[in-house]
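Treating backbone geometry as a discrete language has practical consequences that deserve illustration. No coordinates are needed to read the tokens, only the vocabulary itself. For completeness, the protein is quoted in full, as a sequence line and a line of structure tokens:
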Amino acid sequence: MNNPKILFVIIAAVSASLLASSTVGFTNHVFAQKDNNTSGSSGSAKSDYDKFQSCLSDAASGGSATKGDIKECFNNIYSGGSSSGDSGK
């Protein structure tokens, strides 16, 4: 028998069993969940998304929205305030 192949199969089986048994504890961190904390949120998720898209459209009127524009739109809608710092660089 080929020892490297056997070793690989054993390592793969052990890794798979560890992953399968440990993912139960990680599922709460892996899957997106609804945030019940509404601080900074101005309304429903759809309403916030529509406002975000509108802000991006306004910012991109001359071409593309910059990184700073995107951050500002996001912070204004989802964080409840304006962003500071990056100006699109």
